[in-house]
Amino acid sequence: MVRRTSGGAGTDGAGARGAGARGTGADGARADGSRAGAPVRAARRPQVRLPALRAHDGRPLAPDGDYDGLEFEGADFAGQDGAGARFMDCALRGCALDDTSLRRARVLDSVLTGVRGVGTDLAETTWRDVELTDARLGGVQLHGAVLERVRIRGGKIDYLNLRTARLRDVVFEGCVLVEPDFSGARLERVEFVDCALKGVDFGAVTLRDVDLRRAASLEIARGVDRLAGAVIGTGQLLDLAPVLAAELGLRVVD
Questions:
Q1: Of the four listed, 1, 109, 213, 232, which is most buried by Cβ atoms within 10 Å?
Q2: How far apart are CA 147 and CA 72, in angstroms?
C-alpha cells in the first residue's frame, strides 16, 4: 500500500492523514461501501437441480421463445435468432452458438456444458442460478448483462465483452479468459479460482468483495487504479508493482 502524506505534525493531523490515505471515513467505511480490515465475502454458488427433462424437438430458436424443462443435445443454433427467449430449467450440451443472437434472453436455473461459438450475441441477457462448464467461445457479447449466482468452470473464452454488466455471486473457476473487458461493470462477490486472466480490462469498473487471490495468473492491461474493493495476494502485488508504479508516476531506480 502506498500512503500519501502531507507536511505538518501533530497527532490530529497524523490521524486525519492516516484515515484519508486508506480511503476510509471516520467509521472505517471505504468509498466502495466495504470496511477496512473486513474479510472478503465469499460468492454464493448456484444450486441447480434440474427436473426430468424433455428432448428438444429440433426446431430453430424463435425470438421471445419460451423453453422450459428441455434438453438441447448437440444442437446447431449457428446464425439463429432467439432474442428475448427464456430458458428455464434447461440443459444445453455441446451446442453450437456461432453468430447466434440471444440478446435480452433470460437463462434461469440451467446448465450449459461444452457450448462453443464465435460472435455469440448475449448482450443485455439475464443469468440466474446457471452453471457454464467447458465452454469454447470467442468474441462473445455480454455487455449490459446481469449475472447472479453463476459459475463458469473450465474452458476458454476469448475477448469476452462484459462492459457495463452487473455480476453478483459469480465464480470463474479453472477457465482461461483472454482479454476480458469489464469496463464500467459492477462486480460484487466475484471470485477467480485457478483462472487465468490475460490482458484484463478493469477500466472504470466498480469492485466490491472481488477475490483475485487464487487466480492462476493476473495480467491487467487497464484499470489497475480501479482495484479498490478487490483482494489480491502478496505475490500478485509484487507482480503488479511495475504497473502500479507506472500508474502512480513513480520512477524506480536502483
A1: 109
A2: 22
pLDDT tens figures, 97-142: 999 999 999 999 999 999 999 999 999 999 999 999 999 999 999 9
The dihedral over CA atoms of 38, 42, 43, 44, expressed in degrees to the nearest 10, equals -120
Of 6-20, 52-66, 113-127, 216-230, give the lowest mean pLDDT range: 6-20
3-state secondary structure the chain: CCCCCCCCCCHHHHHHHHHHHCCECCCCEECCCCECCCCCCCCCCCCCCCCCCEECCCCCCCCCCEEECEEEECCECCCCECCCCEEECCEEECCECCCCECCCCEEEEEEEECCEEECCECCCCEEEEEEEEEEEEECCECCCCEEEEEEEEEEEEECCECCCCEEEEEEEECCEEECCECCCCEEEEEEEECCEEEEEECCCCEEEEEECCCCCEEEEEECHHHCCCEECCHHHHHHHHHHHHHHHCCCCCC
Q: Domains plus CATH for the chain?
A: 60-248 (2.160.20.80)
Q: How many CB atoms lie within 10 A of CB 154?
A: 17
> For the segment 34-52, what is each residue's pLDDT rounded down to a tens digit?
555 678 899 999 999 999 9
59, 84, 121 from 74: Cα distances, Å:
13, 22, 19
